[in-house]
Amino acid sequence: MASKPRTLYEKIWDAHVVERQDDGTCLIYIDRHLVHEVTSPQAFEALRLAGRTVRRPDLTLAVPDHNLPTTPRTAPDGTRLPIADKQSAAQLAALEANAPAFGIDYIDAFAAEQGIVHVVGPEQGFSLPGTTIVCGDSHTAAHGGVGALAFGIGTSEVEHVLATQTLLLRPSKTMEVRVEGELGPGVTPKDLILHIIGVIGTAGGTGYVIEYRGPVFKKMSVEGRLTVCNMSIEGGARAGLIAPDDTVFEYLKGRPYAPTGQAWDDAVEWWRSLATDDGASFDKSVVIDAADVEPTVSWGTSPEDVVAIGGVVPSPDSFSDPSKQEAARKSLDYMGLAPGTPLEDVEVENIFIGSCTNSRIEDLRAAAAVLQGRKKAANVRWAIAVPGSGLVKRQAEEEGLDRIFTEAGFEWREPGCSACLAMNPDKVPPGERCASTSNRNFVGRQGPGSRTHLLSPAMAAAAAVTGRLTDVRKLMGE
Ligand SMILES: CC(C)[C@H](C(=O)O)[C@@H](O)C(=O)O
Ligand code: SF4
């Protein structure tokens, strides 16, 4: 008898069930565990107190990112500079001590490979198709871009995975986001995922794992796929993933943690078999026409508060749901915006190009293409470009992108989470706006009182040049 058609998610899930309980809860094997400094100290401490070891240190990789300053980490004479903030320093020191104590691979703050954990995983070939990947971090969904089932976990689960290499989980429902057609010029994967979240809402994916399907994703680079999957959590989903294909295999081949020789060939054969079967059904399906996606920006304090750049700040009354009306009123008050204002009239004082959503080489290239031969506007006080990893930084420097950024008036920084969230010195001052390529525009996200507008790297570069939110297509080909 032919087996029932299954989705990509179901195939990965089934391949990792260690034990299934009567109520449907499963003990799931975890293939890869990424660790950063913020959510790991208590987990390691708990292991220590219980006298436990890490079950599979070889499947665990640690790297600092959130608390690191992005200014130079060493003095000109090579001395390592101290971290001023006490809590940050303590968390970084804990990771630095815990990794060798528990025998875990550790990329330290001074290594060329250091970077944001979600940039480092795929870049090192640690994140592989068909694997289960966890990290004590909500944006772990990013790794779904290489066809992994990847999701964020809490600190107590970090401890559980460290100790057992397994997790107790209930299966998720399946959701398909199918994008038909082709994205237009100047419309990027970031615009697409902002648009998708605008359509489904921040609760649209709750209880689901999303599979992004359709011709747009087949043509999309790995970098773009990581951007899309990264923000699945902003649509409420547990994880997001895209079927692995030759684009992914070519990207991963030869990377340090990727399999080699016969093991590589065997892996590719299995990876090819993971695509959702014809006839498999999803619990929910959303269809998006790529032609409807424009360069998109956020106006409020939730990632679903998005509008095409040619649009206006919406009126709270335009929402039918009374709680959304109230939320929109509060958002607009916080953001200092009046309904009806054209987005292109909104001035920005800060530009942040970075974060695990948009700090890969393609993102920097897209921003640099807009900035080439141009300068930031006089009202733009602070503009920073923060590569997602030391390897991205080096590649960008080899291509001369750092000079394009600095000549345009940007600061060229060391890798880290930076101004994505206010856990390190990179902050947006109260009341100021930031055109930001990150993934969250929550109240206070980039510093107390900061006002975030989410957008793509090309759009952030356009905003830097004009000092206002700007349709990048107007600057293209000029
Ligand atoms: C600090 C960390 C736990 C947090 C997360 O889980 O995502 C951070 O990375 C974020 O983006 O808000
Ligand atoms: S870059 Fe931002 S979203 Fe990504 S892990 Fe760091 S803080 Fe979280």
TrEMBL record:
This is 3-isopropylmalate dehydratase large subunit. Keywords: 4Fe-4S, Amino-acid biosynthesis, Branched-chain amino acid biosynthesis, Iron, Iron-sulfur, Leucine biosynthesis, Lyase, Metal-binding. Gene3D superfamilies: Aconitase, domain 3 (3.30.499.10). Heterodimer of LeuC and LeuD. The gene is leuC. Its cofactor is [4Fe-4S] cluster. Coiled coil: none annotated. Pathway: Amino-acid biosynthesis; L-leucine biosynthesis; L-leucine from 3-methyl-2-oxobutanoate: step 2/4. The lineage of its organism: Bacteria, Pseudomonadati, Pseudomonadota, Alphaproteobacteria, Sphingomonadales.
